[in-house]
Amino acid sequence: MKKIIQTENAPKAIGPYSQAVEHNGTLYISGQVPINPKTGKIIEGGIKEQTRQVIENIGAILEATGYTFDNVVKSTCLLDDMDNFTAMNEIYAEYYPANPPARAAYGVVKLPLGVMIEIETIAMK
């Protein structure tokens, strides 16, 4: 049976979807954008600041469900400009220093709310 995940420590969904869904020991985290969950606003700064906020939001959902970054098996990163790929990787690597998950990264035309990055994540126990 699937379990809908909702934590106040990550941004509320901005559409008809759940922050995450857990099913049979697998956690599917919806694409997270760089919204500060306390203010509900997109954080200021460039790609590094936005990447850090996105990953912190993912971390809050992982923690709320008893998972950790070590449980992450797959990430999909969406960037509004592939020129930001190296800077995004720099921050991303801080959260996955060893045995990083499988990952795809795509350049897209536009992201919700005009943000620079969105990351969706799958974790397993």
What does this entry look like structurally?
The protein starts with a strand and ends with a strand. The protein has one domain: 60s Ribosomal Protein L30, Chain: A (2-Layer Sandwich). The protein has 125 residues and is an alpha+beta fold. A hairpin with a 2-residue loop joins strand 2 and strand 3. It is 23% helix and 32% strand. Strands 1-2-3-8-6-7 form a six-stranded mixed beta sheet, covered by helices on one side. Helix 1 runs parallel beside helix 2.
Topology:
Elements: E1 3-5, E2 20-23, E3 26-32, E4 35-36, E5 41-42, H1 47-64, E6 72-79, H2 85-95, E7 102-107, E8 117-124
Parallel strand pairs: 6-7
Antiparallel strand pairs: 1-2, 2-3, 3-8, 4-5, 6-8
Helix pairs in contact: 1-2
Quick overview of this protein structure:
This protein has 125 residues and is of the alpha+beta class.
CATH superfamily: RutC-like
The CATH architecture: 2-Layer Sandwich
Task: Report the principal-axis shape.
Answer: globular
Which regions contain 5 or more consecutive residues with pLDDT less than 50? none
The count of domains is 1
Which strand-content bin applies to the residues?
Answer: 25-35%
**Main sheet strand line-up:** 1-2-3-8-6-7
The CATH first-level class comes to: Alpha Beta
Structural class: alpha+beta
The value of Rg in angstroms is: 14 Å
What is the fold named in CATH at topology level? 60s Ribosomal Protein L30, Chain: A
Q: Given the structure, what is the number of helices?
A: 2
Q: Please report the distance between the alpha carbons of the first and last residues.
A: 16 Å
Percent of residues in helical segments?
Answer: 10-25%
